[in-house]
Backbone:
C-alpha cells in the first residue's frame, strides 16, 4: 500500500534487523510490550511471537484495521491513537508490571516521543527504539563531543542509552534519506542520586544550553541569574565561568545547579530576615 510521507512512514523490511530488535528487548514471555508505530506489522509479528501481550499504537486509520484483522486480540491490542496521547501509566497498571517499549520513531516527531517516554518513566522498564542516526548520536553523546547537548542530558537523566546497531536506507521501504540507529534505553532516573528536583534541574539545563556558542556564565546571565551569585557558584562547584554547557558532565551540571539553588535559598532567607 502507498505510504504517507506526512506520517514519516518508512517500513522496515530487513528480516535480520527485525529479529535483532525483538531479541534486544530480552525475555518477553511475561512482558507486555508497547509498540510505537507498528505500520504494516513487520516488528509486531516478531513481538507477538515472543511477548505475553503487545499493545500496538497506530495513528494511520488505514493501517490500524489491517493490523486488527491480522493479529488475534488476545495477543495484540491495536490502539488507533497518537502515541503522545497514550496513557502508559494506565497500561502499566492494567498489565500489572512496568512495560517494555519498541518502535520505529517517525523522524518528524522523535523528540516529543522521547520526552513523552521520559515523562512516563515510572511505567516503563526499557525501550528499544529506532531513530535517525543523527538523533541517535545526540542521545548517546558524551560531554565535550560535538553532539552533546540539551537532548543528551535530558534523555540520559532518565537512564542509560546504548547504541545497538545501524541500518542503511535500503533496509526500509521506501528508503529514507538517512541511516537509522537502533538503541536501548533503560529507565533509571538519576534525580534522586544527584539530589536534584527534576523539574527545576531540567529547567536549569534548558537555560544552560540556551545558546550553544555562548559561555555558561553568559547563558545564566541571560536567564536572569545574579552574576555575583553565579560567580560564587562556579567557584564552589570548581567550574570555570568560561566553560560552555556542552563541556560539562551531568554530575557537574547538577553540582552547579545545587549551588545556585543553595545561594538562592540563602539570599531569600536573608531578605526575609531583613524584612
Residues:
Amino acid at each position: 500500500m502507498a505510504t504517507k510521507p506526512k506520517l514519516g512512514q518508512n517500513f522496515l523490511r530487513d528480516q535480520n534487523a527485525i529479529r535483532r530488535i525483538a531479541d534486544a528487548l530480552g525475555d518477553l514471555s511475561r512482558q507486555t510490550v508497547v509498540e510505537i508505530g507498528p505500520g504494516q506489522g513487520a516488528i509486531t509479528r516478531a513481538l507477538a511471537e515472543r511477548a505475553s501481550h503487545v499493545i500496538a499504537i497506530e495513528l494511520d486509520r488505514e493501517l490500524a484495521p489491517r493490523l486488527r484483522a491480522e493479529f488475534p486480540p488476545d495477543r495484540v491490542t491495536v490502539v488507533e491513537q497518537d502515541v503522545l496521547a497514550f496513557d502508559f501509566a494506565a497500561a502499566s497498571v492494567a498489565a500489572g508490571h512496568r512495560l517494555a517499549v519498541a518502535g520505529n520513531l517517525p523522524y518528524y516527531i522523535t523528540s516529543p516521543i522521547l520526552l513523552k517516554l521520559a515523562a512516563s518513566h515510572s511505567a516503563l522498564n526499557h525501550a528499544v527504539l529506532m531513530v535517525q542516526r543523527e538523533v541517535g548520536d545526540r542521545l548517546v553523546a558524551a560531554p565535550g563531543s560535538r553532539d552533546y547537548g540539551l537532548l543528551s542530558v535530558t534523555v540520559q537523566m532518565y537512564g542509560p542509552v546504548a547504541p545497538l546497531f545501524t541500518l542503511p536506507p535500503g533496509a526500509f521501504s521506501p528508503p529514507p534519506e538517512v541511516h537509522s540507529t537502533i538503541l536501548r534505553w533503560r529507565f533509571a532516573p538519576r534525580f534522586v542520586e544527584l539530589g536534584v528536583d527534576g523539574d527545576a534541574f531540567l529547567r536549569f539545563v534548558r537555560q544552560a544550553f540556551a545558546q550553544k556558542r555562548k559561555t555558561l556564565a553568559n547563558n545564566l546571565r541571560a536567564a536572569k541569574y545574579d552574576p555575583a551569585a553565579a560567580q560564587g557558584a562556579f567557584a564552589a562547584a570548581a567550574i570555570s565561568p568560561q566553560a560552555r554547557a556542552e563541556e560539562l558532565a551531568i554530575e557537574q551540571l547538577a553540582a552547579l545547579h545545587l549551588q545556585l539553588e543553595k545561594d538562592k535559598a540563602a539570599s531569600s532567607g536573608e531578605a526575609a530576615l531583613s524584612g
Notes: The longest strand covers residues 124-132. Residues 1-8 have pLDDT under 50 and may be disordered. Residues 233 and 259 are 5 Å apart (CA to CA).
